[in-house]
Design brief:
Layout lengths: L1 H19 L2 E11 L4 E4 L4 E3 L14 E9 L2 E10 L5
Parallel strand pairs: 3-5
Antiparallel strand pairs: 1-2, 1-4, 2-3, 4-5
């Protein structure tokens, strides 16, 4: 039983580690470079797009929530969503 518990704990830990590497940011899009498949946020963060992220739906000035992970020296988008503008 102890061996099974240890294995279950190890599997749980292994499955949660990849998600721990993801980071989420909320910001405004400053530029979109479709040729380079990247966007730059107003804080200077550059994020690259791989298949699945809707870069064609994002324009400068859009507020977005981007979840990304490091792939080498690039921040690669895992999830990208436009957010409704905040009203005061």
């Amino acid at each position: 039983m102890t061996k099974a518990l240890g294995l279950a704990f190890a599997l749980t830990l292994a499955l949660t580690l990849p998600s721990a590497a993801e980071e989420t940011t909320r910001s405004t899009v400053q530029t979109v470079d479709r040729a380079d498949q990247s966007i730059v946020l107003d804080d200077g963060t550059q994020l690259w797009v791989v298949s699945g992220a809707p870069i064609n739906e994002v324009m400068p000035g859009d507020q977005v929530r981007a979840t990304y992970e490091m792939k080498g020296d690039k921040k690669v988008i895992v999830d990208l969503e436009r957010e409704a503008p905040q009203t005061d």
